[in-house]
TrEMBL record:
Catalytic activity: L-seryl-[protein] + ATP = O-phospho-L-seryl-[protein] + ADP + H(+); L-threonyl-[protein] + ATP = O-phospho-L-threonyl-[protein] + ADP + H(+)
Lineage: Eukaryota, Metazoa, Chordata, Craniata, Vertebrata
Protein name: Serine/threonine-protein kinase RIO3
Matches recorded under SMART domains: RIO (SM00090)
Family designation: Belongs to the protein kinase superfamily. RIO-type Ser/Thr kinase family.
Alphabetical GO biological process terms: defense response to virus; innate immune response; ribosome biogenesis
Keywords assigned by UniProt, alphabetized: Antiviral defense, ATP-binding, Cytoplasm, Immunity, Innate immunity, Kinase, Magnesium, Metal-binding, Nucleotide-binding, Phosphoprotein, Ribosome biogenesis, Serine/threonine-protein kinase, Transferase
UniProt-listed InterPro entries: Kinase-like_dom_sf (IPR011009), RIO-type_Ser/Thr_kinase (IPR051272), RIO_dom (IPR018934), RIO_kinase (IPR000687), RIO_kinase_CS (IPR018935), Ser/Thr_kinase_Rio3 (IPR017406)
The organism's place on the tree of life at top rank: Eukaryota
Length: 513
C-alpha cells in the first residue's frame, strides 16, 4: 500500500473521530509560566470563564447606587458599611410591609408607608430564601372568621359530632374575641399557641376590661378634683400659693398628719394685711379632702344641724365639703371664746382652714394615745377633760361627737382638743347618743390608764349633761336617751321650736323662742 492510499484512508477516519462524542477531545496546550499559575487574578478569571460558559443565561447585575455581594471587593470598609446599610434598609422595608398589611386588613380604605421606605421599588424585592411568616400562615393578630354552624346546631355524624357549645370551639372563639377589647387592655401575645379560653374566664376578662376602661375615663376627673394622701390637687395648691404670695404665710414645710377626711401641713406664719389679725409664728393648714368617698357616711353630722340645715339641701356634694370646713371654723371659734384650749382660727378659704400650730419647731404635740404620762399627770389630764366636756356642753352648747385619745393633744402640761368639724349641738337628733359615745371612750381610756376616780360612762354622761338618768344597765340607759331625743324631735316638728335644755324630771322644759 502506497503512502497516498494510506493518507486517503486516514482522512475520513480522522474526521469521524473528531465528530464522535466518545472520541478524545482535541486540546490545545497553552504555555504559561509558574508565576502565572500561582497568580490569584488568573484563578479568578478562569473561574469566571467557566461560570459564563456553564450558565450563559445569567445576566450581569445592572450598575446602580445599590451594591450586591456577588462581584464586589469586600476588602474595603466603606463597601462593607454600604452592604450592611442595604441589608438594614431591606429589613426595615419588610417590617413596614407587615405593619401596612396588619393595619389595612380587608378594609376598602388602606394606607401606605411608601414614603417611609428606604429601598427603591426595583430593588426592594426580597430574595426567595427570605420568606415572611405572614405569607405562610394566618395573621395571629386577626380574629379567625367564624365557621358557619348549620341550623341544626351541630356538625358531623356519630361519634364525630361537634355542637356549637363544644369546649374547644368556644375556647378558640373566645380567644379571637379578645381583640374587641379596648386598646389599653393588654391581652398578651399568643403567636404559635392554640389558646382556648373558657366562657367563665372570658366573661371575667371582659368585665375587667370594661371596668378598666371606665376607670381610665375617670382618671382625669380624679386628678383634678381630689386630694390624695400627702398631696393636694391643683386648685388647693393654687390657694396655698396665694397665701404665700400675699405674705400671710412665709413658707410651707410639709405634711405633719393625714386622716380619712383631711391632710394637715405645717407652715411658718408671715405678716397680716390687717392690724387686728395676728398671725402666729407657726401655723397648721388643714386641707379637707375633696373626694366624696369619706363624706358619704358623714352627712348625718351636718344635715340635721339647724345652723346648716337650710343650706345643706341646696348645695352640690362638693360645696358640702366646704361647709364641713366652715363648720369646724365656727366650732373652734365657740370653744376659743369659752376659753377651752384649742387651735386658733386664722383664715378659711373654701376647703382650706389655717389655724395656729399646737407644737414647737415643726414638731406637733403628741396625742394622748402616744404620750406616756405619770399617774399625777394622768389624773390631771382626766380632770381637765372633764371640765372641758362640761364647758363644751353648757357654755359652747356643743358635743364633740368624736372625742377620744386620738383627738386630744398633750402640750405645755394641759390637754388640747382638736378635730371638731363633726361637733353638733345637744339638740341634734343624735346629739345625746354622740355624747354618750364620747363618755364611753374617755372613761375606758382613763380607767385603763390607772385613774382610780375615773367615772364610768353613765356617771360621766350625767355629770357632763346635768341630766339625772337612772338606769340599772346600759341598754335601758340608751333607751332613755333615745326617748329624750325623740321627744325633742317631735316638739320641733309640731312647734318649730327646739328644746334649749333637756330635763329628766316632770318639770316642763324651757323652749327657745
Amino acid at each position: 500500500m502506497d503512502s497516498v492510499g494510506v493518507a486517503a484512508d486516514a482522512g475520513p477516519g480522522s474526521a469521524w473521530r473528531s465528530k464522535c462524542p466518545w472520541g478524545a477531545p482535541n486540546t490545545t496546550s497553552i504555555s504559561c509560566s509558574f508565576a502565572d499559575v500561582m497568580s490569584e487574578q488568573l484563578a479568578k478569571e478562569l473561574q469566571l470563564e467557566e461560570e459564563n460558559a456553564a450558565f450563559p443565561e445569567v445576566v450581569a447585575v445592572a450598575e446602580g447606587p445599590f451594591i450586591t455581594g456577588e462581584n464586589t471587593d469586600t476588602s474595603s470598609d466603606l463597601m462593607l458599611a454600604q452592604m450592611l446599610q442595604m441589608e438594614f434598609d431591606r429589613e426595615y422595608d419588610a417590617q413596614l410591609r407587615r405593619e401596612e398589611k396588619k393595619i389595612n386588613g380587608d378594609s376598602k380604605v388602606s394606607i401606605s408607608f411608601e414614603n417611609y421606605r428606604k429601598v427603591h421599588p426595583y430593588d426592594s424585592d426580597s430574595s426567595e430564601d427570605e420568606v415572611d411568616w405572614q405569607d405562610t400562615r394566618h395573621d395571629p393578630y386577626r380574629a379567625d372568621k367564624p365557621t358557619t354552624t348549620p341550623r341544626r346546631g351541630f356538625i358531623g355524624k356519630g361519634k364525630d359530632i361537634t355542637t356549637k357549645h363544644d369546649e374547644v370551639v368556644c375556647g378558640r372563639k373566645n380567644t379571637a374575641r379578645m381583640e374587641n377589647f379596648a386598646p389599653e387592655f393588654q391581652v398578651g401575645d399568643g403567636i404559635g399557641m392554640d389558646l382556648k379560653l373558657s366562657n367563665q374566664v372570658f366573661n371575667a376578662l371582659k368585665q375587667h376590661a370594661y371596668s378598666e376602661e371606665r376607670r381610665s375615663a375617670r382618671l382625669h376627673e380624679k386628678k383634678e378634683h381630689s386630694t390624695a394622701e400627702k398631696a393636694v390637687d391643683p386648685k388647693t395648691r393654687l390657694l396655698m400659693y396665694k397665701m404665700i404670695n400675699s405674705g400671710m404665710l412665709e413658707t410651707i414645710t410639709g405634711c405633719i398628719s393625714t386622716g380619712k377626711e383631711s391632710v394637715v401641713f405645717h407652715a411658718y406664719g408671715g405678716e397680716s394685711a390687717t392690724e387686728d389679725k395676728v398671725i402666729p409664728p407657726e401655723c397648721a393648714i388643714k386641707v379637707f379632702k375633696t373626694t366624696l368617698n369619706e363624706f358619704k357616711n358623714r352627712d348625718k353630722y351636718i344635715k340635721d344641724d339647724y345652723r346648716f340645715k337650710d343650706r345643706f339641701g341646696r348645695l352640690n356634694p362638693r360645696k358640702i365639703i366646704r361647709m364641713w370646713a366652715e363648720k369646724e371654723m365656727h366650732n373652734l371659734t365657740r370653744m376659743q371664746n369659752a376659753g377651752i384650749p384649742c387651735p386658733k382660727v386664722v383664715l378659711l378659704k373654701k376647703h382650706v382652714l389655717v389655724m395656729s400650730f399646737i407644737g414647737q419647731d415643726q414638731v406637733p404635740a403628741p396625742k394622748l394615745k402616744d404620750v406616756t404620762l405619770s399617774s399625777e399627770d394622768m389624773k390631771k389630764a382626766y380632770h381637765l377633760i372633764l371640765n372641758m366636756m362640761q364647758q363644751l356642753y353648757k357654755e359652747c352648747n356643743l358635743v364633740h361627737a368624736d372625742l377620744s385619745e386620738y383627738n386630744m393633744l398633750w402640750h405645755d402640761g394641759k390637754v388640747w382638743l382638736i378635730d371638731v368639724s363633726q361637733s353638733v349641738e345637744p339638740t341634734h337628733p343624735h346629739g345625746l347618743e354622740f355624747l354618750f359615745r364620747d363618755c364611753r371612750n374617755v372613761s375606758q381610756f382613763f380607767q385603763k390608764g390607772g385613774v382610780a376616780e375615773a367615772l364610768n360612762e353613765r356617771e360621766l354622761f350625767n355629770a357632763v349633761s346635768g341630766l339625772n338618768i337612772t338606769a340599772d344597765n346600759e341598754v335601758d340607759f340608751q333607751e332613755e336617751i333615745e326617748a329624750l331625743e325623740k321627744r325633742n324631735e317631735d316638739h320641733v316638728q309640731n312647734h318649730g321650736k327646739r328644746l334649749s335644755r333637756f330635763s329628766s324630771s316632770g318639770d316642763p322644759p324651757i323652749y327657745d323662742e
